[in-house]
Every structure is written in C-alpha cells, then in structure tokens.
Amino acid sequence: MKIEQIYTGCLAHAAYYLESNGEAAIFDPLREVQPYINRAEKDNAKIKYVFETHFHADFVSGHLDLAKKTGATIVYGPTAKPAFEATIAEDNQIFAVGTCKVKAIHTPGHTMESTTYLLIDENGKEHGLITGDTLFIGDVGRPDLAQHVIADLTEEKLAGHLFDSLRNKIMPLSDDLIVYPNHGAGSACGKMMSKETTDTLGNQKLFNYALRPDMTKDEFIKAVLTGLTAPPAYFPKNVLMNIRGYESMDTVIERGEKALSPTEFEVVANETDALILDSRQTDDFAAGFIPNSINIGLDSNFAMWVGELIPDIKQEILLVTDEGKEEETITRLARVGYDHAIGFLEGGFASWKATGKDFETVDRISAEEFAQKYANEQLLVFDVRKKSEYGSEHIINAVNIPLNAINEHLAEIPKDKPFILHCAGGYRSMIAASILKQRGWDNFVDVKGGFAAIVKTEVPKTEYVCPTTLL
C-alpha cells in the first residue's frame, strides 16, 4: 500500500493518493485534476474511487472532473445528498483498493455527512486515518459552517455531534495510527492548527486540547466555539457548488485564457461589468496599474483574499498577470469557485503602458520615512491587519480596520485629510490601497514592508488594544 499527501500551501489543503496493486484512490482532490491522473499513470494504476470526507467549504473539489475523466466512483459518507451520481457509504462500509481496504467511519460534527476513512493495508493492519475536517493536528474542525447552508444545524448541535464522534469513533482507535487531515495551519476551517500536517493519533490524544479524555461535552462545546472568527463569505457558495456540481475545469480555463490586446481589453472593460483583477506583486502594482483595478497578489493567499473581497462568485473578471501566469491565476480562482474569468491582458501591464494609455500608481514610503513623520507630525494611521495582530502590538493611536471588513467601513476613512496605510508586510495594505483607489481615495500613502519594517525603527508601540479599534 502506498499513501502520499499532496499538499497545496496557498490553501493549506491536503489531498491524498492511495495506491495498491494497480488500483488507486484520491481523497479530497482540488479542482484541477490532471496532477492526480498523472500520479496514477506513473504507477500504471487506475483510479477506482474518489473519496470525499465532506462537502467542502473552502475550496471546490475536483470530484466531478476526476470521475468523468477516469471513470472513478465518487464516494461520500452517510447522510450526504449530492445532486449527481455517487455512492453514499454506510457507516463502517469497506471499499477495496487493490489488496488494501478503506473503511468509512461516519464522524458527524464539522458537517453532518463528515466521514473519516480508515486505511487498512494488505496485511490487515490498520495504518492511518484520513480525517478530513473532523480532526486536525492540534485542533478539530469548526462546527459553525454548516449553519450557513442549513439554518437548523446550529453550531452547538454540531459541536455536540463532533464530541460524540471523537469520543466514540476516533479516540478508541489505536495510538499508532497516522492522522492525515485535510488542512494545516493557515486554513480558515480551524482556529489553532499545527504547522505539522501529519501525526500519530496517540500524540494527538496527548496534546490536542479537544481530545482531553476527562473533558465533558459542555466543556468541549465551549472550547471549540470560543474564539471562532466569522468564516469567509465564499464558504457557503463553495459548499453549494460541491453539492450541486459545476462547469468542467477545462471549460473554465478555455474561457479565461482569451488573450486581449490593450485596446480589446479596454473595450471589454468598458462594455461589461467585469472586475479588473491584477495579480502581480505589490511593488509592481504600486509602480503602475490600470485605473479601477484591484490588486490581489498571486504570491500569497490569493484565493482566500479573492473569496473574502469579491462578494459575487459569478463576477466576470478581466486579468492582469505576470506573463506566463495566466493559467495559474485562472486555476487558483476556480479552486474557490470564481469561474468567470473572461480574458487577460496580452503582454501584461507593460503592453498597456507601451500604448500610452492612462495608468495610476500608489504612493509609498519607507519605514524610516514613516518613523520621521511619526516623530514630527500628527499622523492618521490605518492598520489593516487582523484584530488579533493589532491587539498583540500596534502603533499608538492607529485605527484598526481589518482588510476583510474594509468595504463595510469605508465611511470611517476620510477623503479630506491625508493618512497612512500599513499591514504586516505590505501585501494586505496594497490590496486595501487598490480598493481605496478604485473608490476614489487619493490622499494616502502605503508603508513599504508594513509593520515588520516599522518595528525595526524607533517608532513607539503599545500592546494595549486602544479604543480606536473598529472591529
């Protein structure tokens, strides 16, 4: 039996490849499925099953395309009701993959259909658990997401189910089982996941707060619900796509990979309601960009911020990318359900600039310049980091508007006096700068390098969360 974790860092997502005796199974695949097909072909194996641990919220799964291209059977756990052909496993049902076995263990809690898959090798030894979002390394799946799709499934009810699943289905299993979760640190599907992406179940019983053996159900419910932040707005929409189905990834790529000259790009932008999305790095965007475009850099948590800041998942999108990054950008948009890229600027921003068309810039200052201004002037500073980051340490009197809430707090940002933007390192503040530029603000500068650069100067800071926090 061969088991491999296929990890995608920008989504903190883990899919799994299982192979035995010429048969393979894929667990929780991402939207683009060719890498899984290629992996099976490398072993001369046929993909027999696509196992889904639950209806995912943070990404659109590749189950439909993978099944269509390989003939594999899609498998969900008990209570799942997909709008397409799939096998709905019974609790403890066993599936053969080559000479090994996969046992479906119904573990409701994160969602009601959540299922953990027990891997049993060719010798009959229980090897590991593919836990989906039921059990992470250092954490468990948040039980507040399903209520955004089904109102009756309150977070308290689901947390109670999760307690029972962990105590009655997972914790009685052998300590030497390897835990293979669906996510690692950085995912919004939990609140305190480890950077490690596998561990033994025995270690998790010792160190995972949610597996404390003497914890009561009430204590568990309080522990898992305390400190949860609001989930990204696109989560319920991805759930529905995973339940109902979606367009083929090939169709999405073909539609988005339409090269447009600067003139054609401008015509399409003017004649449609398309959003111009610029995925270049912050330095490049600040130096020049097409008016009304939004910058979300491909070099960081691109898909997550697209999902946070573009409310309509069906929004038509025109792309400005680094040359050669067009397909990657379209793919990463589609991973979270943004399937309506309708073309890209051929030749990138350089071609736009070469035609003499209008462009804008973002004014930036260094951390040293900020320190000088701070020492000599009364500055209005907006910090777009998360509330928790701001609470840990921030510039005295800085106003905290987390980036994911900026659209709801534009009224608090003045247009009649200058101000300064910063985040932790410059990525988020450039997104904020592009949003403000699009909405008509032009009276601010961005701190290059963000708070990380500022702390190296002599600017006074405080660990006190002052009353200027808006969220």
TrEMBL record:
The family database entries (SUPFAM superfamilies) matched by this protein are listed as: Metallo-hydrolase/oxidoreductase, Rhodanese/Cell cycle control phosphatase
**Source species of the chain:** Emticicia aquatica
Q: Does the keyword Hydrolase apply?
A: yes
UniProt cross-references to Gene3D superfamilies, sorted A to Z: Rhodanese-like domain, Ribonuclease Z/Hydroxyacylglutathione hydrolase-like
According to UniProt, the name of this protein is Hydroxyacylglutathione hydrolase
**Residue stretches making up the Rhodanese domain:** 270-361, 375-463
Gene Ontology molecular functions: hydroxyacylglutathione hydrolase activity
Domain of life of the native organism: Bacteria
Show the SMART domains listed in the entry. Answer: Lactamase_B (SM00849), RHOD (SM00450)
Q: What is its EC number?
A: 3.1.2.6
Query: Keywords of this protein's UniProt record, alphabetized?
Result: Hydrolase, Metal-binding
Tell me the gene name: gloB_1
